Amino acid sequence: MHAWEKYFEIMKEIEADIMKTQSANIMKAATLLADVTERGGLIYAFGCGHSHLVAEDAFWRAATPCNYVALTEASAIGTFEATKSYLMENTYDLGKHIVDYHRITPADCLIIISNSGNNITPVDACLRAREKGIPTIAITAVGCANWLKTKHQAGVKLKDVADIVLDNRSLIGDAAVQIEDFPMKVGSTSTIPMIYLQNAVLIQMVEILKERNFTADVYYNGHMAFMDSQAAEHNNEMVDKYFYRIRNL
């Protein structure tokens, strides 16, 4: 078996593990997001480093809810100055300031994405949200968090302080494949299942709302909009609806 085939097999095993262990929490998270959406709230998502990719993946794109907001704090996402972002992810009060700056309210929800769940900024963001009565969902790796030591002075990890925890079942070390005579494993295991989990709850949210006779706002694919005037009109209406509520739309 080639290394890439081993990687596919390992990722399929993680996916199967998620389906077996996370069903109840997926439904809890989807129900919370349905409640938030039905009352007119926004679904905020925040992650530092590579975790921000999960937030960006669902923001202003095809087949995703229009009331979803990616909080892309430039200093912490690693897109421009990668090694500095690690320092920012471990700076006290940054998470608090992000929650406060974006005026997140208890009518909204905050999804916090962190594979280890042991760095300071994601934990601070979750703690601040709890102080303000904002419901929280963590997408994290519980096994990794248990294995690692938290950096937060409060001695807590993201999994300990979020209202709902979605476990991505990522492998310790966030690495999949051992190649013979090579010193470290290669192939990350965290991002793909986190995107799976987030899409799962967003899809399930739409179904729950449909069962409540409430139609969720969802974008069409941009190229479909280019080819179909009705799809384009729908997307334009959605942007107009949320433009002054989502500051980076």
TrEMBL record:
CDD domains referenced in this protein's UniProt entry, alphabetically: SIS_RpiR
InterPro entries for this protein: RpiR-like_SIS, SIS_dom, SIS_dom_sf, SIS_GmhA/DiaA_subfam
GO terms, biological process: carbohydrate derivative metabolic process
UniProt organism field: bioreactor metagenome
Organism ancestry: unclassified sequences, metagenomes, ecological metagenomes
Protein name as annotated: SIS domain-containing protein
Coiled-coil positions: none
PANTHER family: PHOSPHOHEPTOSE ISOMERASE (PTHR30390:SF7), SEDOHEPTULOSE 7-PHOSPHATE ISOMERASE / DNAA INITIATOR-ASSOCIATING FACTOR FOR REPLICATION INITIATION (PTHR30390)
GO molecular function, one term: carbohydrate derivative binding
Domain SIS: 33-219
PROSITE patterns: SIS
